[in-house]
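Hi everyone,

Forwarding the result from last night's run.
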Amino acid sequence: MKHSFKEAYDVLHRHATTLREQTEPNIDDLLHIVEESVAAYKTCQTRIDAVEKALDKALGQVGSVPERRGGGPSAEDDQQTV
């Protein structure tokens, strides 16, 4: 089952809290927690990778915008102080 980033993040948060707060390990639940956490982690990582790629693409397009007209060196730039 596919989850949204938020749903997957909530699964990870819930399991982390469960593991942190338990006073003695519950081995019977551990396999289920690990399997569900791995699936949730993969969902989160996939979404993060997709966002990074989209940002890279968007920022790459911003960097390739042609320079505005008249953006060349000015007459002042041609004069050098000696």
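The longest helix spans residues 27-63.

Cheers,
N.
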